[in-house]
Amino acid sequence: QFKGGESDQEQCMTIHQAAIGIGQQIVKHHGRVNKVFMFDKGCTFLCLFGLPGDKREDESAHALQAAYGVHDLCQKEIRSLKTVSVGVTTGPVFCGVVGHPVRHEYTVIGRKVNLAARLMMHYPGVVSCDSETCYYSKLPAFYFNELPKKAMKGVKNPGVLYQFMANKQQITVGKAPMSVEREEGYPLLGREKEIEVYSSMLKGFLEARAAGHKNYNNVLIYEGPIGYREQPHRDPPEFAQRTRV
């Protein structure tokens, strides 16, 4: 939504800038921008994940990560915008060509499309989603905050609705705080904080085993968002020998 008072040229430049940034975020997370349209309350981008021929098990998680990336980008880099709102829903819809043979388009139609639009309008300034998106994303519960119920035109019993918080939350492992937001393609080993935790636990394990104690920790688990695959890596030289102990 625009702040108001912008000229037509300024609005066009803003939409152009937003389209480039949003397109990059959506494609990065295996989605597609379907259409862009203007109406009385601002400019709307309809983005799709899991189209026929491109289904993925973790598409709900990708959609949420993309939505948060879009929201963050528009707030920080496009100053002429008053409010940035994103609605994310998951469910079956009609996908296909609609219109006259001479003038038609590929689009999606269904209850979930309408619900996403209503979420965007009734919960401004946040990334909101329905309970199906929350469930199928398989992300930790602390990524979500339950939203208050609101009456929405044309929507009956939308279920529990959530605000997606993403990397505003922090996880603490030992004494080293680690952000839940990961850079795609960046190996886990090689990070100072993770190595610090790993070294501390490995040292404690070796000392306890050498002393003959049986009560010690020998498991360390790193948790990342769904959709971020494990990348092949080599242990740094200083860990190579110790990890084979």
Word description of this protein:
With 245 residues, the protein is of the alpha+beta class. The chain folds into two domains: 8-168, Nucleotide cyclase, GGDEF domain (Alpha-Beta Plaits, 2-Layer Sandwich); 170-244, no CATH class. It contains six helices and ten strands. The strands form four sheets. The protein has a four-stranded mixed β-sheet, with helices on both faces. It has a two-stranded antiparallel ribbon with strand order 1-2. A hairpin with a 4-residue loop joins strand 4 and strand 5. Helix 1 packs antiparallel against helix 2 (59-77) and helix 2 (59-77) crosses helix 4 (131-137). The chain is elongated and about 80 Å long.
Number of strands: 10
Number of helices: 6
Please indicate the count of domains.
2
CATH level 3 topology of the largest domain = Alpha-Beta Plaits
Question: How would a textbook summarize the main sheet?
Answer: 4 strands, mixed
Which spans of ≥5 residues are poorly predicted at pLDDT below 50?
A: 169-183, 231-245
The sequence of SSEs as H and E is HEEHEEEHEHEEEEHH
Spatial strand arrangement across the major sheet: 3-6-8-7
CATH classification class of the largest domain: Alpha Beta
Over all CA atoms, what is the radius of gyration?
23 Å
Oligomeric grouping of the chains:
single chain
What is the beta-strand fraction?
15-25%
What is the distance, rounded to the nearest whole angstrom, between the alpha carbons of the first and last residues? Answer: 58 Å
Q: Choose one word for the global shape.
A: elongated
The CATH architecture of the largest domain comes to 2-Layer Sandwich
